[in-house]
Amino acid sequence: MLTDGQISGIIEHMNDAHADTVLLYARVIGNRPDTVEAKMTSIDRHRMTLEIQAPSRSIEPLNILLAQAISTPMDARRVLVRMAKRARQQTLASF
């Protein structure tokens, strides 16, 4: 099970180092292609919550189920990387 410190570390890392990927999660996996800004606000064993902004809309939460349950930071890394790859493939396939 992830500790509060591990959760905070994952969230901070994703928002600081992978903001483009968090936006991709919202647009593709979260089925919100109109999203112009996204940040991860929480992650647990089964889901992540993003705070998203779309044009002419207020900021709102978006819950995204993880592809697999996570228990450790390494699990989170593995699952989030796999989800990012899948989202990028979907994006390329749509062109």
Please write the CATH class name: Alpha Beta
Tally of DSSP helical segments: 3
Whole-number radius of gyration? 13 Å
Name the beta content range.
15-25%
Order of helices and strands: HHEEEH
Number of domains: 1
- CATH-wise, what's the superfamily? PNP-oxidase-like
Class based on secondary structure composition and strand pairing: alpha+beta
CATH architecture: Alpha-Beta Barrel
Which runs of at least 5 residues are low in confidence (pLDDT < 50)?
A: none
Describe the structure concisely for a colleague.
This protein has three helices and three strands. It is an alpha+beta fold and 95 residues long. The chain has one domain: Alpha-Beta Barrel (Split barrel-like).
Describe it.
It is built from 3 helices and 3 strands, in the order H-H-E-E-E-H. The protein is α+β, with helices and mostly antiparallel strands. It has a single domain (4-85), classed as PNP-oxidase-like (Split barrel-like, Alpha-Beta Barrel), CATH 3.20.180.10. Strands 1-2-3 form a 3-stranded antiparallel beta sheet. It is globular and about 35 Å long.
Keywords, separated by commas or semicolons:
95 residues; Split barrel-like; three-stranded antiparallel β-sheet; 3 strands
What is the secondary structure topology, with strand pairs?
Elements: H1 4-17, H2 19-29, E1 37-43, E2 47-53, E3 60-65, H3 73-93
